[in-house]
Structures are given as C-alpha cells and as structure tokens.
C-alpha cells in the first residue's frame, strides 16, 4: 500500500474526519456566530460533495477491509449531496439552535460511519461502521431539547438499534463459525446453504430489515420520525436508509449470491409485507411526519422488490431509485421543515389552503409527493417503473400485480395532501412564509432533480455503466 | 412531417403561459396555442393523405425513433397511421373548444389553462407513441390534471369525485402497467416497441393471462362495464371544459389503448375473450341507456349516455372485424366531438340558469335560441339521426357486427340496436322539457344568448360533426387501413 493510495482511496473519509476535528476545535474555542458557522459548514459540506465526485479510483485497503470502486464512490456522492441539502433545508431551525457544532459533529460522524459502511469488505468492518453510523443519530434524535417526544425518540432508536445489532452480531458469529471467514471476497466460496448458514443469513437480513424499517421490523420508525427534529428525520429516512440499501445490495449480490434462491423468497415476502403495511398505515396518519414515516416504509417495499431481481438491472434500478428518493423525499421534508420552523405546525389539517398563501411551497410539496407516488413526468415514475420491471423479470406476475395495487393505494394518501393544500379552505391558513435563500436554493435543487433525473436518461445510463 | 411538433407546441404554450402576468394574457396564449394545435392537426391530415395517395403503404408514417433508456431498450418512438391521425384531429378540436368555453373561469385562471394544456400534451403523446413505455408515460400524464381540474374547479361533491376518478383511472393504469411488463418479458426479445411486439410470437398461455389485464386496464378509461362508475361522478362534478376533455379525449385514450395495445399485440387473447368483451359492451350499452332514462340532471344524462355510447366502441373492437373496428374508431371520433359539444351546451345553460335539473328548465328556446339550437343538434346527433356523425359511426359498427354470424354476436348486436330506441326516448324527452313549452321561471326571461367564444366553440365542434355525417367516406378511408393492420393477425388465425 502506497501512502498516495491511502489518501486518494479514502479521501472522503479523511475529509470528514478532518471536518470533525475542526468542529471540535471550534466548539472548544468560542466566539463564532451561529449563522456564520452554519454557512461555513454548508460550504464545507458542498466541498465534501465535490470531493466525492473527483479523483475516483478503484482499490482495496487494509487487507480487503476497505473497498472502493466507481459504484461505491457514486453512492457516497449521493449521500454527501443529501447531507448538504439537509443542512441547507434546516437553516432556519439550526440558526437558533444553541448546540450547532455538536449537531454537525454528530451528523458528520454518522456520515463517516456510512462511508465506511458502504466501503466495507468484511463483516467486522461492516458491524463497526454500522454502529458508527447509528449511535450518533440516536443522539441527534434528542436535539429538540425542550420536547419530551424527542428524548423518547432517541431512547427508542438506541434501544431498537442495540437490539438489531445484537441480532446482527449473532448472525455474523454463526457465519464465522460455519465458514471460518468474515471476508466478503472469501465468504461466497464457503457458502453451501446448510441449515445453519440459512439461519445465520436470516439473522443478518433481520438486522438489515431493522435499519431499513422493513415490515415486520418497522415498529420504531413512526415514533422516532415523529419525535425527532425534522432535519434528523430526513437524515434518518433518506441518508441512513440509502446507505443501508446500498450495503444490502452489495452484501446480497456479491457475498450471498450462492443463497440467491433463499433471499429471493425472503425479499419477496418482506417487500409485499412492507408495501402493504406501510401504505395501509400511512392512510390514517394525521401528523405529517408520521405520514412521511409510513410512506417511506412503503417506499422501502419497492426498493426490496427491485433488489429481489438478482441482476444488473436490479442493482442499477435500486441505486437510481435511491438517487431519486433523495431528491423527492428531501423536497417533501424540506417544505415540512420550513413550515414547521416558521409556524410549528405539523398536522396535515394545518396545510389546508396552503396554496393560497404559499404557492411555491405547495407546488414543491405537490411535485415531491407526485414523485414519491410515481406519477410522470417526475423522476419517481421512472424509478418506480424500473423497480417494478426488475421485480417482474422473474416472471411472478402476481408479485407485480400486488405492487401495482400498492401504487394505487399510495396514490390515495399522496393525493390527499395535494387535495388539502389546493382544494380545501381554511379560516386560519398558514401565513405567507418568507423563506430564506439557502432553503429555497435547496428546494430548487430538489425540484430540478425531480424533473430532470427521470426525463434525462443520462443519469440512468451513467449508473448502468458503474455496474 | 415532424410529429414531435404536436407535443412541443402545447409544451411551449404551457411554458409561455407560466410567464404571463394576467388572466387575459393567459387566455389568449392558450387560445393561440390550441389554434396552432388545430392547424398542426389539419396539416398532419393533409400530408398524411398526400403520402397515402402517393402510394406510400407503410403501416406507420412519419416515424421518429430515438433511444431513450438503452439499458431497458426504451425508445422515444412516434409515428401515425390513419387511426392516430383521426384521434389527433379529435383532440385538437376538443382542446380548442374547451379553451373557448372556459373563457369565463374566474378562479386560478393560469393554473386552469395549464391543466387543460397539460392534458392535451398527454393525449397527443399517447396517440403518437409507438413505444409502450412512452405510451404509458403519456397515459399517466393525462390522468393527474383531471384530478386537479375536478377537485379545484369542480362543483358538487367534487373532492369525492376527483378522488374516485383518479384512483379508478390509476387502478386501470396499474393493470396496464402489469400487462405491459408482462408483454415486455414474454416476447423473445425484450422490447417495448409496438411494431416489433406485434410481430413477435407471444405464447398463447401468456396472451390468455395478459390480455384481460391490458384490456380491462384501458377499459377503465373507456367506461367498460363494470368499471364505469367513475364516469357519472367525474363528469357531473367536473367544470365544463373538464367534462369535455374527460368524455371527449380521456375516454378515447382507453378505447385507443384497447385497440392499439391489447388487441393488436395479443390477437389470440383478443380472439379468446371477444365474447366476454361484446357481452360487457352490450350490457354497458343497454345499462347506460336505461340508466340515462332515470336521470334528472343534464350532466348525468350525458354521462350515462356516454357509458352507452362508449359501449359501441367496445362492441366494435370486440367484434374483431375490419368494418366493426373502423366503426369503433369513427364512433370514438364522433362521440368525442358530440359529447364535448353536449357538455359545452350544458355548461352554457348552467352558467346562465344555475341549474342542470331538467324539471326546473323549460322554454329555453324562447330566451336562448342559439344555445338551444345547438342543444337540438347535439341531441339529434346523439340519437343517431342521419346527416350527423353519430349515425355514420353506429351504422358502421352495426354493419361490422353483422358480419359475425355466431349466436352470441348476433344477440349482442340486436341488443345494441335496441338501445337506439331508448336513446331517442331520453334525448327527446330532455330536449322537449328544457327547450319547449312555457318559460318556467321568471328570471330566465332576462338571460343572454351565447357569447362570441361560446358560439365559436360550438361552430367548430358542429362543423366536425356535420362534415363526418355528410361526407363519411374520407374518414372511413383514413381509418380502415389502420384497422386492417390491427385485424390482420386475427384473420390469419381464423383461416
């Protein structure tokens, strides 16, 4: 290993580590204004995104523990972009927050964990980075310091993730016992679908289910999403889920390829259960954060469906969908966060008549919801369609029929929000919000993403070349 | 001719509209835009006829094919045959008439016209597409504006109707989606290309499985019994232009899809299910007609009669003969024009009298002679009077149907014929009560007759109806070769 390799292959991780130290020093020293610190952090996050785009090389470090290639690099840049957008969208909330440096300290740590997570080439590395990615988020969930619900959310998150980590470790140790290795490149050769290995795989997959909030491991999701500050909720539902989907793809397609029969059936069941439960529960939600929580559970169902295809197109369509999901979901969370920061309102009925007072926010939220629902010409249409097509490639039509049925169910509640904003009238509508430039800029990026990523086929073709 | 112009023109109109500052500018932009659409549609008809008379017998003319998503073999592939040209003409007629009759919209004018234009983009794209992915893309684009049109600008139980319509249509398109994916993976080559798929051998088992999905999916759009329930609610709650677009364009998307996608790609499936289709169509025709008899509200009358009339489209398709399919297409065009005009007239009456109830109206001929005369014309067209398009269309369908000698087909044909009597009853009764007799309410005496925009809209649509009615053969000649291609494989199967 040359020292140059080290710097170039781990550039993203190193950059984040430096930023973490920088924030620590800023915290120890004093005197920086919140607003200017926030701007500095936003600029740094943008630089981080640029860093993730440039000088990408393939390579392996530390004896196969750390793997990077163009696909991993692309996935990291999606996560970096998402974090950058979140920092812009929550400007109003963060400006007033008394613990700004800590907030980003924790968020960067978690992002660093995710970077290592999707680069990991070894079950031990995988476990460690997963913990690094999760534990800071639990602290972040507590950042609405005055609210009891926020601490409750943090508690629920840390307990449930500790539990899932336990299960994960159990699965890993079983695998180690059965195969004698924890290395991703050596594992496939030792897998023979014995009962013990299948058991171990089920444990492993349950842990993934927990993190992805797939049904039946989803119970923590709604409470945590509702209690956490919106910036954290969006980080959890977009960035954290995205990274888990990426590593799940790698693990399934690269490591457990010999077990593909097993995980196809498993994914099919998980996927259908997740779609149905997510959708049916989303129908009844009145709090917009809980609503988005359940809708994002349903989205995971579609991601799992795409994964099940076990081919390049499954891989490409999942990465493509996550890219679209970042923009659509962040646009939705962005509008919710702006409104919540200015008025404190989070109930769906509070959005009545929003179009009369805030047309830009309403159109943004509407387009984001259309994209989540999969209505053209938004990118979500293409994302969903490719996931469905990948899922259909094995020829199980009933699987596709159920998924299509779920598209219709989900349309009902997405349109419900549109109806509330555009058609209902309210005596006390949310007053006209004068939004700050940073958040508007981020919403603009999200909108551009929602419109362009679908219609311009270059994005999908590019992802396809990374396979 | 460059077919993408038909998609780009409304797109430019929409973008220009976004830049406009006041309602007046928005209206004029959309009027100019829809006039350009009409000109383009006529230009297309003209060059298409020229090509054909010059001896170009290729199935699809003016094809353009660009790769879109190469990994999935998805193409931006457009092209037209006679059937598409007829549908595009219909769309252009209805769009300009819809824009004209909505001149008095007060609420959110820019958004309203934007929705109308968006819907037209969806419709043009749908009729032009030769790639199933593209077709599905445009089909879905055409759904959502309807939800907003009904929900925001509608009347009555508008939110319920908007939801019902959006969910049922999306349910239909979900079925279509499953069918499309099935077709994509079933053939020996993975392609969405309509022309290629029609030549690929698709196993009979698969056809048997996929045909009902595709046909029922598109059938939801065109009020296939028992999926017609969105029609009355949707139409009655929609604003005037919304109803016109719904019945005039949107329901035709379904008929066109049944024909172009389901029947064309899956001929063996079509053959197998044809008795079920005609049974459902006959039920829709009779049920629609009898249900109309019971209606008191003018919009409900036209909505249920649309169910009945669209039944003829499905009947024609289900018969699987060249004449019947030609008749089905002519019926789509005719019904599109006629029903758009019908809803326009109802809108005009409602705007003035603020009621749509047949019982409360009366003697309108004395106060609004122009509007009432249009009402007469459209009513007579609806009941199939010779000289109007309705007669030509239904006659062609019946003639085509009579070519099938088997018992079930005969029964369905006779049942469908009987509906004409019922149609005459409800149309004449509705017209008689509203137009004739003494003026029922004092306030009606001061009502004004049609304004310039309403007159223009009516004249445009009536021109279409009468031209088809008086000189039907050009339309027949335009459509028949297209129908021949669709039926080709099925007639080979029969021999």
Structure description:
Chain A is mostly helical and 467 residues long. Chain A has one domain. Helix content of chain A is 77%, strand content 1%. In chain A, helix 6 packs antiparallel against helix 7. Chain A is globular. Helix content of chain B is 76%, strand content 3%. Chain B contains 20 helices and two strands. Chain B has a two-stranded antiparallel ribbon. In chain B, a hairpin with a 4-residue loop joins strand 1 and strand 2. In chain B, helix 3 runs antiparallel to helix 11, helix 13 runs antiparallel to helix 18 and helix 14 crosses helix 20. The relative contact order of chain B is 0.10. Chains A and B meet through helix 18, helix 19 and helix 21 of A and helix 5, helix 6 and helix 7 of B.
Greatest interface (CB-CB under 8 A), with counts per chain: A-B, 33 and 34 residues
Q: Give the C-alpha Rg of chain A.
A: 21 Å
Assembly state (oligomeric): heterodimer
Number of strands of chain A: 2
Share of residues in strands of chain B: under 5%
Subunit structure (chain A): NDH-1 is composed of 14 different subunits. Subunits NuoA, H, J, K, L, M, N constitute the membrane sector of the complex.
Membrane topology (chain A): Multi-pass membrane protein
Catalytic activity (chain A): a quinone + NADH + 5 H(+)(in) = a quinol + NAD(+) + 4 H(+)(out)
Main location (chain A): membrane
Topology:
The complex is a heterodimer of chains A (467) and B (495).
Chain A: H1 3-9, H2 11-28, H3 34-53, E1 59-61, E2 66-68, H4 70-89, H5 91-95, H6 100-119, H7 123-141, H8 148-179, H9 187-190, H10 195-212, H11 219-227, H12 230-255, H13 260-282, H14 288-307, H15 312-343, H16 354-357, H17 359-373, H18 379-392, H19 397-422, H20 437-455, H21 458-466
Antiparallel strand pairs in A: 1-2
Helix pairs in contact in A: 2-3, 2-6, 3-4, 4-6, 4-12, 4-15, 4-20, 6-7, 6-12, 7-8, 7-12, 8-10, 8-11, 11-14, 12-14, 12-15, 13-14, 13-19, 14-15, 14-18, 15-17, 15-18, 15-20, 15-21, 17-19, 18-19, 18-20
Chain B: H1 5-19, H2 23-53, E1 61-69, E2 74-80, H3 82-101, H4 109-128, H5 132-141, H6 144-153, H7 158-186, H8 194-199, H9 204-221, H10 230-237, H11 240-265, H12 267-293, H13 298-319, H14 322-353, H15 364-367, H16 369-382, H17 389-402, H18 407-435, H19 452-470, H20 473-494
Antiparallel strand pairs in B: 1-2
Transmembrane segments (chain A): 6-25, 37-55, 67-88, 100-118, 157-178, 198-220, 232-256, 262-283, 290-307, 319-339, 360-383, 395-417, 438-460
Pfam families (chain A): Proton_antipo_M
Family (chain A): Belongs to the complex I subunit 2 family.
